[in-house]
Design brief:
The chain is α+β, with helices and mostly antiparallel strands. It has 3 domains: 2-143 and 322-343, Nucleotidyltransferase, domain 5, CATH 3.30.420; 150-187 and 261-315, 2-Layer Sandwich (Nucleotidyltransferase, domain 5); 189-257, Actin, Chain A, domain 4. The protein is 40% helix and 28% strand. The chain is built from 12 helices and 19 strands. The strands form 5 sheets. Strands 3-2-1-9-10-19 form a 6-stranded mixed sheet, with helices on both faces. It has a 5-stranded mixed sheet with strand order 13-12-11-17-18. The longest helix has 24 residues, at 251-274. The radius of gyration is 21 Å and the shape is flat.
Length: 344
């Protein structure tokens, strides 16, 4: 009786615990947290100085005793303690904004990469429980993303989704509430940033920060040739003189820097199609391919994939929030959650 009374006040959260960004959806309120997955810690006192955007602004600019860490790599926890602290911070922030009291330990649905191990699943569950959750459900990222896009995942039809995040690119064929076949790779947004850093070093003798590389990718990055040439100033340190240097880089050069990684993604998409059952491939050919995640915002990525596969490709509405919206829908559909999720 008492538990039923308390359950009315309990929050339910959907979480996209991403390599680049963490998003939290609160049932009945929508997306309330959308922050970079970055934490700044004072190593002398072990005190958290900043989380999210504030911590990201400190990247590469801190004295030795302040560590700015991204506790997730390729969608997997690489620093358990800092991930736990980050989630504690975000869950506390949700509680403060919602005005809930001490007994309100939330139920959490969190999305995780396809090739995650049992140990890594346990690490995610433990980190979120230690941060204040009462129960944690883990759902595979492409499934959560497909649900967030309102794809008919329960139907006996082929749904093809590509989720390009910061740390991983997940490709999946979904039918009857299950993933039929899939590919998961560690080539995604962060890898494209590294490609630009490497290109700047090799071609311009310029040491570039990853934050600068990401900015260049967002401003002028593209997967196919654009109608108009775009340029952007690239600032860093000259390798030869050690002094600050600025050069103009254009979209063609950025494309040259990232094209190898994009080809790997395309090859994996084709490989996934090649092993999919013929009936599902027929559905996919008719229904098309959907791209979501931050990587979907790269100019011309849909055109590049469409040319390679001869299948229509569309980009999700608001691709950055698709995944967390999927976890939010699952909070409202407990039967589907039991079918597609794993309780840790």
């Amino acid at each position: 009786m008492l538990d039923n009374f308390f359950s009315k006040f309990r929050q339910e959260l959907g979480v996209d615990l991403g390599t680049a960004n963490t998003l939290i959806y609160v049932k009945g309120r929508g997306i309330v947290i959308n922050e970079p997955s970055v934490v700044a810690v004072n190593t002398k006192t072990e005190q958290i100085l900043a989380v999210g955007s504030e911590a990201k602004n400190m990247l590469g600019k801190t004295p030795p005793h302040i560590l700015t860490a991204r506790p997730l790599k390729h969608g997997i926890i690489s620093d358990f303690e800092i991930t736990e602290k980050m989630m504690h911070y975000f869950i506390d922030k949700v509680h403060e904004e919602g005005g809930f009291s001490f007994f309100n330990r939330p139920k959490v649905v969190v999305a995780a990469p396809l090739d995650i191990t049992e140990v890594e699943k346990k690490a995610i569950g433990d980190a979120i429980k230690n941060a204040g959750a009462r129960e944690v459900w883990i759902v595979e990222e492409p499934m959560a993303s497909a649900i967030g896009n309102r794809m008919p995942v329960k139907e006996p039809v082929g749904n093809f989704i590509i989720e390009i995040g910061g740390g991983t690119c997940e490709i999946a064929v979904i039918s009857l509430s299950g993933i039929v076949n899939w590919k998961s790779m560690k080539i995604a947004g962060d890898e494209l940033n590294k490609n630009i850093v490497q290109y700047a070093k090799e071609v311009f003798n310029l040491l570039l920060g990853e934050k600068q590389a990401e900015e260049i990718k967002i401003k002028i990055g593209s997967a196919v040739e654009q109608k108009e040439t775009m340029q952007y100033p690239m600032r860093g340190r000259d390798i030869i003189t050690g002094l600050p240097k600025e050069v103009m880089i254009n979209d063609s050069q950025v494309r040259e820097a990232i094209i190898k990684s994009l080809r790997v993604i395309v090859d994996n998409i084709k490989a996934t199609l090649e092993v999919a059952p013929p009936e599902l491939v027929a559905d996919i050919h008719e229904r098309g391919i959907l791209i979501s995640g931050g990587g979907a915002l790269l100019r011309g990525i849909d055109e590049l994939i469409a040319r390679a596969t001869n299948i229509p490709v569309r980009i999700a509405d608001d691709p950055l929030t698709t995944l967390v919206r999927g976890t939010g829908i699952l909070l409202d559909e407990p039967e589907l959650l039991e079918e597609v999720g794993i309780k840790t």
